[in-house]
Amino acid sequence: MMKLTIIVTVAIVSILAIVLVALSLFIVDQTQYAIVLRFGEIRKVISEPGLYVRTPFVDNVVRLSKRYYIYDIPVEKIITLDKKTMLVDSYAIWRIDDPKKFLESVRTVSLALSRIDDVVYSGLRNTLAKLEFDDIVTGERQYLVDITDFAKKNLADFGIEIRDVRIKHTDLPTENQNAVFERMKSERQSIAALIRAEGQKEAQKIRSEADKQATIIRAQAMSEAERIKGSGEASATRIYAEAFSKDYEFYKLLRTLESYKSIIPNSVVIVGEDLSILEQMK
């Protein structure tokens, strides 16, 4: 009986020891922070993975993730510099950077998201209020850097690191869409009309210059043609003169025959007996 009692006692003590050891040891994963709390007070912050010891029934271990979160921020209304209301759908990439500050200030991820929502909205409102609607929609979005810096600065005291703030898309409230679209359409039509007018002006300038150049070229061509014609006539006169001086009778005969070609064909000619041109027909 005594032996059985000893065995039972040893078994109970062993079980209690195993339970005590199991309650004293805890494992920290590489993707986690571990914060050891004693009666609600932070005793230790563990950021390295491994096996650690705590005081059973006294210490409580809270684990927080080191990973980045993507928070899809609810759509907010923003008023731009030119007094237009727009809907901004944005998101933030964030993580817990200082677990001690995080646990002391916001304690839970849900409360952290609420704080991020407030800070990012303030950054959006303050930054976009300095810009006009067209610059926000069609610009290079350099303003996102300012919004991200604003969020980083204001959330650092809560142990939160903001990696980036981005806008998924912007839209107009339903009641404003038609008016804004009509205004944008009118502006684009005005710009198109101005571009067409400038194009027509440039085309007219090009046509005028082309007409001027064509006139100059024609004048130069006519001048060259007259010069060549004059040179040809001078050469012909010189040749005729040389031929006349060599054989006057033959030259007279040749010129008379050429005259017949232009007078007699297809015409009626009335001549007198004394017309010298008929001497060659005898």
Question: What does this molecule look like?
Answer:
The chain is of the alpha+beta class and 282 residues long. The protein folds into four domains: 49 residues; 103 residues, 2-Layer Sandwich (Tetrahydropterin Synthase, Chain A), CATH 3.30.479.30; 57 residues; 34 residues, no CATH class. The protein has seven helices and eight strands; from the N terminus they run αβββββββααααβαα. Strands 3-2-5 form a three-stranded antiparallel beta sheet, with no helix packed on it. A hairpin with a 2-residue loop joins strand 2 and strand 3. Helix 3 crosses helix 5 and helix 6 packs across helix 7. The radius of gyration is 53 Å and the shape is rod-shaped. The termini are far apart. The mean pLDDT is 82.
